[in-house]
């Protein structure tokens, strides 16, 4: 689709910005990472009139974005469940993840752990038990983040292959 050189360039900048912010959002729990990446890729496909990246490819990318959301929920819940976490620990991990955003990278890494530990302690668990739950919850979130990153890189790879090969 030829919208003019300036408009096309601005749309490509928008698409790239959505992909970049979405990729960061895979790590930061507040941003819907895979969905932002999908939106950027959809804008890129639209700019080209869906000639290179068509509806079937976009549908596959959308399913991958949906899978990313499922992975995120399942990974942290599985880590917590495996440790036998109290529901307060799970809530604490989520609150810690959000609160951690205000403290930079250290907060993003330690926030879920601290939140899970505090949640487990509030449920009358021992400090040792709370530490185990915190670690299991944190590992679940870490593995979920790695899986989401792999999904987003797969989405980018599929788009690049369709667009440039």
| Mean pLDDT across all amino acids | 89
User: How many structural domains are formed by the residues?
Assistant: 1
SSE string? HHHHHH
Biggest sheet record: none
Helix fraction by DSSP (H/I, runs of at least 4): over 70%
**Between the first and last Cα atoms, what is the distance in angstroms?**
19 Å
The total of helices stands at 6
**Envelope shape:** elongated
Give your account of this protein's structure:
It is a single chain. By secondary structure, the protein is mainly α. It has one domain. The protein contains six helices and no strands. The mean pLDDT is 89.
Briefly say what this structure is.
With 165 residues, the chain is mainly alpha-helical. It has helices at 5-25, 33-47, 55-82, 87-100, 104-122, 127-164. 82% of the residues lie in helices and 0% in strands.
Task: Record keyword descriptors for this entry.
mainly alpha; 6 helices; 165 residues
Tell me the layout of helices and strands.
Layout: H1 5-25, H2 33-47, H3 55-82, H4 87-100, H5 104-122, H6 127-164
């Amino acid at each position: 689709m030829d919208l003019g050189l300036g408009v096309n360039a601005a749309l490509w900048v928008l698409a790239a910005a959505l992909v970049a912010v979405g990729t960061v959002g895979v790590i930061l729990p507040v941003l819907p990472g895979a969905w932002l990446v999908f939106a950027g890729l959809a804008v890129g496909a639209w700019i080209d009139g869906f000639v290179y990246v068509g509806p079937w490819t976009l549908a596959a990318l959308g399913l991958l974005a949906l899978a990313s959301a499922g992975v995120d929920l399942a990974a942290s819940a599985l880590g917590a469940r495996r440790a036998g976490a109290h529901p307060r620990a799970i809530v604490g991990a989520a609150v810690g993840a959000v609160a951690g955003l205000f403290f930079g990278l250290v907060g993003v890494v330690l926030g879920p752990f601290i939140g899970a530990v505090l949640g487990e302690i509030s449920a009358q668990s021992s400090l040792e038990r709370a530490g185990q739950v915190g670690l299991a919850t944190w590992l679940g979130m870490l593995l979920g983040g790695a899986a989401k990153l792999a999904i987003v890189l797969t989405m980018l790879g599929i788009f690049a292959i369709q667009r440039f090969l």
